[in-house]
Amino acid sequence: MLFAGMLNTGSLSYIANESSHPIATPSSNAPAKMWVTQNTLRPGETLALHFTPPNPTYLGVVDPEGHFFYVVFPQESASGKLQPLVNSEGFTKLDHLDIVPANFKADPYTYGVLENQPVFTNTGTYRFILGENLHVDDPSAVVSVEVKYVK
Fold first, then answer.
1. pLDDT given at position 17
2. Structural domain tally of the chain?
3. Between residues 93 and 137, the one the model is more confident about
4. Which listed residue, 41, 95, 139, 145, has the most CB atoms within 10 A of its CB?
5. pTM to 2 decimals?
6. Which domain holds residue 99?
7. How confident is the model over 7-29, as pLDDT tens digits?
């Protein structure tokens, strides 16, 4: 595989831990479509992103330095070794995605970089963004959650 993350599709039914409240909330007043149940992550732990399907076609992440990475995008947009963790078609049905920071690589959306790069490289806050268009100025057009990674 060209990406080094872990995907666990599990059941497509409602999240088993429905009584827990999301720690991170969406950036708009719309119902939560993405959340985490732990807001601090350490090496060796797995980040579980939870969703309410159907999901939009794009998922991205911004690292503490402000670098953007595409995590989920349409397979037809993949180029060479720049591959989505999950393609958009499969992602729309997922209720969660498990990410192992130590192995997680994504498309860095950087001119001249032709293969996925490690994402969790430094301690700090990582913001995951979910939407149909991730490059918008209106924060209500996307849903985001933040996770602090402590290396």
1. 31
2. 1
3. 93
4. 145
5. 0.79
6. 37-149
7. 333 333 222 233 333 333 334 44
**Residue 124: CATH number of its domain:** 2.60.40
For 48, the 3-state DSSP assignment is strand
Q: 């409602």: which residue's tokens?
A: 14
Task: Determine the Cα–Cα distance for residues 101 and 114; give it in Å rounded to an integer.
Answer: 21
Query: Is the Cα dihedral 51, 106, 136, 58 positive or negative?
Result: negative
Q: Which residues pair with 43 in a beta bridge?
A: none
Can you give the length of the chain in residues? 151
- The partner residues of 143 in beta bridges, in order of sequence, read 130
At 101 the three-state DSSP class reads coil
Beta 47-51 vs 96-99: how paired, if at all?
antiparallel
Mean pLDDT of 36-57: 95
Can you tell me the mean pLDDT for 140-144?
91
* C-alpha dist (Å) from residue 100 to 105, 131, 145: 10, 22, 17
> Alpha-carbon distance 142 to 130, whole Å?
6
